[in-house]
TrEMBL record:
This is Uncharacterized protein. The keyword Transmembrane applies. The chain crosses the membrane at residues 20-45, 88-113, 125-147, 176-200, 212-231, 251-273. The keyword Transmembrane helix applies. The lineage of its organism: Eukaryota, Fungi, Dikarya, Ascomycota, Pezizomycotina. InterPro entries: Elsinochrome_Biosynth-Asso. It comes from Glarea lozoyensis (strain ATCC 20868 / MF5171). Keywords: Membrane, Transmembrane, Transmembrane helix. Residues 293-320 are annotated as: Disordered. Coiled coil: none annotated.
Length: 320
């Protein structure tokens, strides 16, 4: 698969790649994650305090920012895997950190908007599909980085060379890096399983605890990934590899575009406030998906089953 790569000649430096490590790209991921986690905290706080305010604008903003972050996170990981024959571990690691920002954003959104996902099976399964794709890509990227650390791959060789070069001996900090990489990969798998369970479980007696702990973990992951990106990127810090030029600090249309996309959720918010877009209410779980119209206990929501392989009886009732 990587037979055409020259892994014998080690370059003295590496080319810059503003498409994955430019200032605008990094800022868009960090800002989106920060705004999304703040909005998630606001919604969870209002739910815990049982506020009567429905927060339709906040819910729509959060969903828009989250969708944007998850899709761009998957996209940038696909770019990294497609360019393995040319991309050095430095850029690959930055992409991996950005994928962690995407994961943290998604988990925070899932905790805050779980009722919206549970009442609509299409939204729920789309979200689960994105979760799975992001998990697979993140695990594959993590394995490449793990192998590059274990084999002490030169930082100027393409990441794909990990399967061709022999080990150069472990670096002085390899143990910490290996343990940290394995921990992140394992954590991603655990969070995926818990997120899947959280979307489908009907009884959630520990809702408040799950929401608070999950949000704190998501914020910690996002903060750690953001700090690593800022410190190790050429755009804001000192890179771990010699780069040929300062192209990742330059601002161009390619760097402005991710920043401009942050304005799109605000347009949706204006449309909601002007009454041009409708967002379903969650007050007392007004959208009933079962025959019973009795109000549900706090922390529980209607659950629309998958009509293809979910409960056939429940699906039949939903269609009436």
């Amino acid at each position: 698969m990587f037979d055409n790569i020259n892994c014998t000649v080690i370059p003295s430096d590496a080319a810059t790649d503003a498409g994955v490590a430019g200032a605008g790209v990094l800022l868009s991921f960090i800002i989106t994650a920060g705004i999304s986690l703040i909005l998630s905290a606001v919604l969870i706080l209002r739910e815990i305090t049982r506020s009567s305010h429905e927060s339709k604008v906040v819910r729509k903003l959060l969903l828009s920012f989250s969708d944007q972050q998850v899709i761009t996170g998957i996209g940038i990981q696909c770019v990294g895997l497609a360019k393995m024959e040319f991309m050095v571990p430095y850029h690959f690691f930055i992409i991996w950190m950005l994928s962690l920002l995407s994961t943290a954003t998604h988990i925070g959104t899932l905790l805050a908007l779980v009722q919206d996902f549970k009442r609509d099976w299409v939204l729920r399964w789309i979200r689960q599909f994105f979760m799975f794709v992001n998990l697979v890509l993140s695990c594959v990227s993590g394995i490449f980085l793990l192998m590059s650390t274990m084999r002490n791959l030169s930082q100027t060789l393409p990441i794909a060379c990990v399967w061709q070069v022999q080990s150069n001996g472990a670096a002085s900090n390899s143990t910490i890096s290996v343990v940290g990489t394995i921990a992140v990969i394992s954590g991603n798998c655990i969070m995926f399983v818990l997120g899947f369970w959280y979307l489908h479980v009907k009884e959630r007696p520990w809702l408040k605890t799950i929401q608070v702990l999950g949000l704190v973990m998501s914020a910690a992951i996002a903060a750690g990934a953001a700090v690593r990106v800022i410190l190790l990127s050429q755009a804001f810090g000192k890179p771990s590899v010699d780069l040929r030029d300062g192209g990742e600090r330059d601002w161009s249309f390619g760097q402005l575009l991710p920043m401009l996309l942050l304005l799109l959720p605000l347009v949706s918010a204006v449309e909601i406030m002007r009454g041009e877009m409708r967002v379903p209410s969650i007050k007392d779980d007004e959208i009933s998906l079962v025959e019973s119209h009795q109000p549900k206990p706090y922390g529980q929501s209607s659950f629309q089953p998958n009509p293809f392989w979910g409960s056939s009886a429940a699906a039949s009732r939903w269609s009436k």
